[in-house]
Every structure is written in structure tokens, then in C-alpha cells.
Amino acid sequence: MTAESVELLNDFLQEALDSLREIPQQLDEFFSSPENTEPIHAVFRSVHSIKGAAGFFGLLGIKNFAHRLENVLDKLRSGTLPPDARLAELLIQGIDLLDDALQQAGDGEQRQELSEAEQALLDKLEQLVAELGGSDDPQVQMAQAAQQLREVAEQLKEWTVPEAPQVAEKLEQIARQLDPPKEQQAENAASAETPSPPKHSAAQLAESKFAAPDGSDVTDVLRPLAGFFHQWEQGQYTDEAGKTFLEQVDKAAQSLEKHGQQNEAARLRNAAGDFRTILESPLDLDDNLVSIIWEPIQEVLGTFCHQEQPEPAQDQQKSGSTKQTQQKQGKPAGGKAKGSGGEPHRIVRVREDYLDEFLESVSELFITCERYKDVQKRMAETDQLQALVDELREINGSFVQQSNDLQQKVLTLRRIPAGTLLSKFPKLARTLANQLGKKVRVHLIGEDMPVDKQTLEALDAPLTHMVRNAVDHGIQSPEERAAMGLPEQGNIWIEIQQTPKEVVLEIRDDGRGIDPNRLRRKAVERGILTPKQAEALSDQEAQELIFHPGFSTAEKVSDVSGRGVGMDVVLTTVRERGGEITLKSEVGRGSTFRITIPIQQGVLVKDALMLSWAGQPFALPFEHVVEIAEVPREQLVQVQTQWAVTLRGQTHAVVPLGKALGIQPEEIDDQELVPIVLIRSLKGSLCLAVERILGHRQVVVNPLEDLFSHVVGVAGVTQLGGGKLALVLGAEEIIQTAVSSEESATGPAAKD
Fold it and tell me: pLDDT class for 479, splitting at 50, 70, 90?
């Protein structure tokens, strides 16, 4: 397989997996409200497209499986098969298996046959379809009628009416007559397994000759039909061409009827009816809709095709062309959508290393902006070039605005829909629930929200642990839920939100909740707490024991749980990203976990408060600044070895910046007003005492790597004007160090 073919295959697999993401929700919408048929049409189109493309790439296992699913979906959308909850469950399982097959193909496993799991599911589907009366095969319909007669006969045998046994015997005789002969069953099975002949593309059929079974030439009436779809492939579709096509179909159908081909003529008229419905609807004509019309017409044209056209030579094909791909598989593509008035949107994939390099270049713009400001300031102090200063100020203001806009636009390139992460969890939950004999539905909220890719990747492992935990520990078995008066199917909600500074992920369920008393007992059994310590815990504190390393309430170790490496891993991972997790749970009502993770910007351009200590400038990111104040010296009090101050009724520790960095003595200068900055992070809060407050500035943070690794509280360095540098303070590390120092001095809080 050439590099171009591999790229095309990967593109198809990714698009196919993306299209499967919404199908479970669409199926749920349809089975909840069958009168709304748009969801089932959307599902059919997705599976139909996957079937066609899989056939082109030689993925026959996927093609055949998708085709069998498509047949059931077609009966649902046409109304010949009634909606049934059991059918919904089997179809969702089928979509999960199709997802697995596509991922296996991406890993290089390209099966030509159905897997055992796929065949078993299809057998269940066909049995259920037959039970619901959805088969249009006369043999199947007779078998269904025979089974119904047998069921009535069995019921009659239990009646006490004298004639009942004779009537039952008569019904069984009729049932035996309706059963197809064994030879016919074998013939039907063999024909079902016979692969259909290869289909011709629209381009081929537009140059072919056609003949009726009696030898009559029907090229003039059939070739224009293929020509219309070939025009669509070339992007030459017009509304006038669509109207002409309908007239040509009618003419072709009349011609076929004259030659005794009523069935083929009816197929053409049905396809034309579908096309007319689309034209008269508010829907835009697109590749999926055209492919639905093309498939039956393609089969009819193939029946009468008298001369095959050779495939174009390999060297004449355009490598990597999406249009060529669709032509080869017999699917029209590339036409201009009805009413679109323009070309479809194109997606450009960007390598991350290119993106990072570009973001680095953008950061240089901010350095230039700050240097402009410094030049402007020095020029203004001369009082000789005021006009030039004003012009420079105007240019700089425009430049700053452009830089900000550019930064925001570039950052959006790093964002991907949250559904890219969340989409796998409904399937994960269903698979695990099946293993445990449970029924679970996962509701996704906010999956269309664009979120930074790195942040999403950081959430993947914690969310996987939590979904598994919710299914295993949270959701009860169907029997337990029924006994409690609850629906047998449990629910898990995954919701993602984003603020300018953080991503908030919430996972909640309507399961059994977390029993604090049970956790107290388990903690005592495992020697984590003494009975007295366990009794002293509040219910909230007891519930939070699930985050304790190695703690588990599972009665036995399994592949799912019981190894004590679940929720403590979640907490550790979240905190490594500077985030936090909170828990709310009520016995019998369910649990809610809320994860908050700061957004990691691709470009480390930050709004900073400029400070000074011992005459040296420092930058403190504004995201950690709560309040800036000048406090009279007498309001600072010393408690043991720690300074403190009261602001707005709350007492805060005061740490001189020099002490926080470990580079100066801890004494505070004897001045009337002491500048202090109240900073806060997830680790806590404190007040930094500084020499001067210099003002606001945008800074580009350059990491120091191992250069200053021994310096506490330094997150990086930034360039100032005039060739000067300033250290960027790490507020979280400063606070953590101060908290640790205080605990070392006073000793950890003792527990009974």
C-alpha cells in the first residue's frame, strides 16, 4: 500500500470513528420519539457511508457487518420494522463492535470475515427482526407465520373444549406446510453468502452501452442517468440539471417497462421519488443524500451494462484525491450542495511541533511590544520629541491589539471538541456494565465545547478511572434498582465546562452513593484509622477516605476493581496538573465528583504584577493575585517566628519576598507603609511583603529548566526593556514552601 493510500485509509478510519460518536445518542432519540425520523436517517447515512468506503479499501469484514446493520436501519427508517427497546440495545452493541473493527483496522488488522462477536450479534438481530415481523423475505415471513400457528396450537392443547386437540393438530399441519424445505433453506443461505458483482462508477457507466434482456439497445435512455451523477462528481451540479434528471428517469422507466422490466423500472421511479422529496425539502443536497439515490440506480444500470470500461491507468490517477476515492467505490462526490452558494469547509491538520514553533514566534511579539513601551517612556522624558512619542504610542497600541488577536487565534488552533475525549466513555461504560450484568446509560453534556488539547489529554486517565468506578461501585444491579423502585438502567452524567482560567469536569451518577459508615468500618479493618479516629470523622471526611492510597471497599479483587489503585490515582493526577477534586454523595441518591484543572496556555504570555526586592524586579502572574495593599508597619504582628496581618477581618501570614526565595534575611524593612500582595492558589494563601509595587506588564515566561532548579519559588524568566531580565515568581511553590515550613515549626496537627 502506497503512502498516499495509507493516508487515505487513516483519514477514512478517523472520519468513520468520528461519525460513530453520535450514533448511540441518535438511536436513543429515535427510539424515545419514533415520530421524529431524522435521527434514524442520520444513523443510516453514517453506516451507509462506512459500508461503501470500507468496500473500497478492501475492508470486507467491516463492509459486510455494516451492510447487515444498514439493512436493519433501513427497515426502521422506512417504518417496516417497529421500534423496540431490545432492538435499540442490539444496535448500540453493533455500533460498538463496528467501532472496535475500525480501530483494529487502524492497527493493521484488516479482517475479511465477520468476527465471532459480530456474527453472534447479527444472529440476535435477525432473530429479533423476525420476531418483530420486520423481514421482507417471503421464506422468512412464512416461517414467522408457521411459528405463530404453533404457538396458537400449543395454547389450544391446554383448553378443555373437546374439539381443541383436533384444531391444534390442524394448525400444526399448516405450520409444517409453511416451513420452507431444507433444500430451499440451504439454497437461500448459499445465495446470501455469494458476494455481489463489483459495481461500476458513474464515470464508467456514463461511457458504457446498455442492452435489455431481449437484446434491445437502451443506451440512449440509461446512459444519461449515469451522466448526471458523473456531473455531480465533477462539481457541475445545477438545479436545472436536477429537474432534467427527473425527466430522464421517467423516460428510462417507461422504456424498461416496454421491455418487460417492471421491477427495475419501479426501482428507478422510487429513487426518483426520493430525489424529488429531497429537492422539495429544506435539506441541502450533499454527498450522503446523493449516494442514497445513486445506489439503486447504480444497481439497475449495472444489470443492463453491456460493455465495461477499463479502470483508468494508475499513473493517470491523482494521488490522494478524495474525489477519486469516492469514484472508485461507486459513490458520487464533490458536487456543490443545493443552496450552499460556495465550497464546503475544509479541515487542515497541523503538526504539533509546527504549532509550537509558531507559538514561540508569536511570543516574541510581546517582547517587542514591551521594548516599544520602554523606548516610548525614555523619549517622553526628554520633552523634545512629543509628536514622535504620540505617533509611536498610536503605533504601539495598534501593535499590541494585533498581537493579542493573533495570540487568541493561534490558541484556538490547539482546541479540539471535548467530545474527542468524552465520546469513548459511553462505550466503555456499556462494555463494563455488560461484564457486570448491569444496565447503564451515559449522558454527555458539553461535548461540542472546544477545549485545549493538552488539558483534555490530562483528563483522560482520571476520567477513565472515575467512569469505571461509577459503573462498578456506584450503579446498582437491575435487581437492586427494581427493588428500590428505580428504573433498571442506571445513569451517569459527564459534563464539561470551561471558564477563562480553568476546565471543570463533573461526573455524577444516580447510584447507591457512598456510605460514610461503611468507609469508617473499612478504614478500621485495614488499619488506616483507629476506631476512635474513625468515629471522629465527619460524614464528608469519611467519604473522602476513598482518595486514601490503597483504600478500597471492594470485597474481592477483579479485573475491574479491588486493587486500591483507583481514586488515589485520580487525585494524584489531577493535583499534578495544578487541579483539585471535590466530592458530594448521598446514600441512595448517587455521587458527584467535580474536577477543576487550570488551563495550560500554549504560549506562556501572562499578565503580571511587577514587584521589586533589594532593587531587583520580579514578575508575579496576576492569576494568583487577590489583593494589593500598603499596610502601616504597626499592623504587622509577629507570632512566634511568623509575621501576620489582618485584612478585611481575616488573618494572613506575611512572608518577605527575600525569605520566600531564600536569598535575603527575613526581616521586614522598617518603613511606615509596607507594600504587600495577597496571593492564593490551591495550596493556600499568604501575603508577600515587597519593596515596591512597579505596576502591570505583559510578560513572556521562558522556562529556566535546570539552570535555577535549586531556587525555590521561581517559575521562569522574562525579558524587560533595555536588555534587563526579571525572574517570574511561582506562587504555588512559594505558598507550598511556606505551608511546609510552618508545619515543620509547629508540628503537624495531631489526631486522636
Answer: very high
Q: Where are the alpha helices (DSSP H) in 79-137?
A: 85-106, 116-132
> Is the pTM above the cut of 0.70?
no
Would you list the DSSP string of 428-491?
A: HHHHHHHHHT--EEEEEESTTSEEEHHHHHHHHHHHHHHHHHIIIIISPPHHHHHHTT--SSEE
**At 401, which helix (H) or strand (E)?**
helix 386-413
In whole numbers, what is the pLDDT of the chain averaged over residues?
76
Sort strands 502-509 and 490-498 into parallel, antiparallel or unpaired: antiparallel
For residues 721-732, one letter each, b for 16 or more C-beta atoms within 10 angstroms of the residue's C-beta and e for the rest, the string is beeeebbbbbbb
Distance CA 697, CA 610 (A): 7
Give the model confidence (pLDDT) of 382-411 as tens digits: 666 676 677 777 777 777 777 767 766 676
Q: Give the whole-angstrom CA distance, residue 337 versus residue 732.
A: 54
Whether residue 265 has pLDDT greater than 50: yes
The Cβ of residue 301 has, within 10 Å, a number of other Cβ atoms equal to 26
Cell of 631: 499596610
All residues at 6 or more sequence positions from 361 whose CB lies less than 8 Å from its CB, including other chains: none
DSSP 629: E
User: How long, in residues, is the chain?
Assistant: 752
User: Are the beta carbons of 675 and 690 closer than 8 angstroms?
Assistant: yes
In degrees, to the nearest 5, what angle opens at C-alpha 580 toward C-alphas 577 and 584? Answer: 150
Which distant-in-sequence residues (6+ apart) come within 8 Å of 142 by Cβ? 178, 179, 180
Helix 182-193 / helix 138-157 crossing angle, nearest 10 deg: 140
What separation in angstroms does the CA of 710 have from each of 125, 456, 616, 715?
65, 31, 19, 12
Residue found by looking up cell 400457528 in the block: 149
DSSP 217: B
All 3 cell numbers of residue 423? 465520546
R_g over Cα of the chain: 35
Measure the CA–CA gap between 595 and 582, rounded to whole angstroms: 7
Q: Per-residue pLDDT tens for 521-538?
A: 988 888 888 889 889 989
Edge-to-edge strands of the sheet including 490-498? 440-445, 490-498, 502-509, 590-598, 580-586
List strands edge to edge, sheet with 625-632.
Answer: 625-632, 673-681, 684-689, 650-656, 642-647, 637-639
CB 661 within 8 A of CB 713: yes
Do 564 and 528 contact (CB within 8 A), yes or no?
no
- Which of helix, strand or coil describes residue 651? strand
List, in order, residues 6 or more apart from 232 with CB less than 8 Å away.
202, 290, 332, 333, 334, 335
Q: How far, in Å, are 49, 71, 549 from residue 136 at the CA level?
A: 23, 11, 59
